[in-house]
Amino acid sequence: MSNLSFVSPSRNSPWGTYLAQIDAVEPYLGRLQRWVETMRRPKRALIVDIPIELDNGSIAHFEGYRVQHSLTRGPGKGGVRYHPDVTLEEVMALSAWMTIKNAAVNLPYGGAKGGIRFDPKLHSMKELEKITRRYTSEIGIIIGPQQDIPAPDVNTNGQIMAWMMDTYSMNAGATATGVVTGKPIPLGGSLGRVAATGRGVFVIGRETMRRMNVPMEGARVAVQGFGNVGSIAAKLFAASGAKIVAVQDHTGTILNEQGFDMADLLDHVAKTGGVAGFKGGDKIDNEDFWDVKTDVLIPAALEGQITQARAQRIKARIVLEGANGPTTPDGDAVLADRGIRVVPDVIANAGGVTVSYFEWVQDFSSFFWTEDEINVRLDKIITGAFKHIWETSEQHRISLRTAAFVVACTRVLEAREERGLYP
């Protein structure tokens, strides 16, 4: 397993997880094996200091990152997260998974990711704007509509993207709507973008269930993480006849064996900020979430949630990864041994970046599509990509995750081989 001098990853850390995934795919790359080391090394990693004046007049410093893992197939593409646990190693792994995700879906992008280590909940809107604008100015030397295109991620949204776009545009001397995606509609955002990741999770889940002969009607679904991705996926599953029987978020875990009333649950979360206290379900211990009997389990929170120990307890037929990197390599191995089908993040949650691509294209052409057109195009692209990955999995008798990496790495390394090395 190759390593970089400035990180020392454990096997189950984000970067260690990614390196283990590359190790697993290497035997299937044929002549392209000679290029595989490029997958293990980010092209560029930028660490920036973000000093701002707080509302109380004091000066605070925050650490920010932007990592471009690969630009071989096109501009970097990946979100920006605001979280107190953000690290360079985590952002490296997330940027690498974006390389894989974009190539697996055959989007003309490389992989990138960004983050700032702080808790946005502890800051005013004015302070968030200052932090965002200073961060954008600092990373402005490596981002751009044809270089690297940020997007929302954990704790960031359309407003953050609007500030980023405005800051970049002011520094560039011209309005550059294409520098970020996930923007508000009046600034060149795309219809369907907010729901795209959750919709993609549902579409890929539907396709997996069809191939495994798991009926949608009455299927039991559990969701960890009830933000933008988890809540929308749950809503779409329920609308198609499935039962959402367990939900966990940062406020707690609730269970209803008959299935939640999704309208009531979504209304409760909108009013209170979490699932805790919802009268339409029973509160259970957070760890008991992993013991709930389900057909489909959707981890849609943060990475590293399905550990070896939790994987031993899971009672699901399908694990549908809504989050990035929610399953550790040891957890993955246990699920495989137990015959539980894991649909990897790089295809299961690729709906967001696919509609981000649509937004980028619409910004360049200044021609915008309807939401129905967006959803039809999304469905067609990700179901086609999933079909190719499923067939690759069956051909080589490998997991869907390894198959997705085979497809993606083949595309990236073929492009690398064709481009050659300069100088």
Can you put this structure into words, describing what you see?
The protein has 13 helices and 12 strands. The chain has 423 residues and is an alpha/beta fold. A 7-stranded mixed sheet has the order 9-8-7-6-10-11-12, with helices on both faces. Strands 1-2-4-3-5 form a 5-stranded mixed sheet. α9 links the parallel β11 and β12.
Which structural class do the helices and strands define? alpha/beta
Total beta strand runs: 12
* Oligomer state of the chains in this structure: single chain
Query: Are there runs of 5+ residues with pLDDT below 50, and where?
Result: none
Lateral arrangement of strands in the main beta sheet: 9-8-7-6-10-11-12
User: Measured on Cα atoms, how large is the radius of gyration?
Assistant: 21 Å
Largest sheet: 7 strands, mixed
At the fourth level of CATH, the homologous superfamily of one domain is NAD(P)-binding Rossmann-like Domain
> Which CATH class of one domain is shown?
Alpha Beta
Any guess at the CATH architecture of one domain? 3-Layer(aba) Sandwich
Helical segment count: 13
Order of helices and strands: HEEEHEHEHHEHEEHEEHEHEHHHH
The termini sit apart by 27 Å
Strand content: 15-25%
The percent of residues in helical segments reads 40-55%
Give a topology summary.
Elements: H1 14-25, E1 44-53, E2 59-70, E3 76-83, H2 88-104, E4 111-117, H3 125-139, E5 148-152, H4 158-172, H5 193-211, E6 220-224, H6 228-239, E7 243-249, E8 252-255, H7 262-272, E9 282-284, E10 296-299, H8 308-313, E11 318-320, H9 329-337, E12 341-343, H10 345-348, H11 351-365, H12 371-396, H13 400-419
Parallel strand pairs: 3-4, 3-5, 6-7, 6-10, 10-11, 11-12
Antiparallel strand pairs: 1-2, 2-4, 7-8, 8-9
